[in-house]
Write a structure and sequence with these properties.
With about 160 residues, the protein is an alpha/beta fold. About 30% of the residues lie in helices and about 20% in strands. The strands form three sheets. It has a five-stranded mixed beta sheet. A two-stranded antiparallel ribbon has the order 1-2. It has a two-stranded antiparallel ribbon with strand order 6-7. The longest helix has 16 residues.
Length: about 160
């Protein structure tokens, strides 16, 4: 894991259109911990696996469950339009917000890089603590499972492994 320029910095405020209706969703920065994951495109294989891994972690992973929805939100962001994201959320029953960053401003604010020699949007997950500070970033473009593992590791540190 390379050192990301955002680690240790306050998380940029973010309000973007959310599934299913396109209503604006503001990240609850400073209110609860946030697993914010940027993914290239809804309904592509790696993105689907990553999104479902977060869905399953919220349902089945003891660390995620112990932290609970009241203390941790999972939020996905892609450049897709809200209708494409809504069908993605419905098809896979994701159960958490997916936000539309059509103009790429959120990616820019979080310094999300491109991958595959700059041809596709990067896959990066940010762990933001309840004080609103970015504590860790997973930039693994291929091993989507590492994104939920990074969040789990940080949650364990927050709860002291209890």
């Amino acid at each position: 894991m390379s050192h990301h320029p955002m680690i240790g910095k306050p998380a940029p405020a973010l309000t973007l259109p959310s599934t299913p209706s396109g209503e604006p969703y503001a990240l609850p920065i400073g209110e609860k911990a946030i697993a914010l994951f940027f993914f290239p495109k809804a309904n592509t294989m790696g993105c689907t696996k990553e999104a479902c891994a977060f869905r399953d972690a919220r349902q089945d992973n003891p660390t995620f469950k112990r932290y609970g929805d009241d203390k941790l939100v999972v939020v996905g962001v892609s450049g897709d339009a809200t209708p494409a994201q809504s069908s993605f959320v419905d098809q896979y029953n994701l159960g958490y917000p997916i936000l539309s960053d059509a103009d790429g401003s959120a990616r820019k604010a979080y310094h999300v890089s491109k991958s595959a020699f700059g041809l596709i949007e990067g896959r990066e997950t940010f762990f933001i603590d309840s004080q609103g500070v970015i504590r860790d970033v997973c930039t693994d473009a291929v091993l989507w499972n590492n994104h939920t593992k990074m969040v789990e590791k940080n949650l364990k540190m927050l709860v002291g492994g209890a």
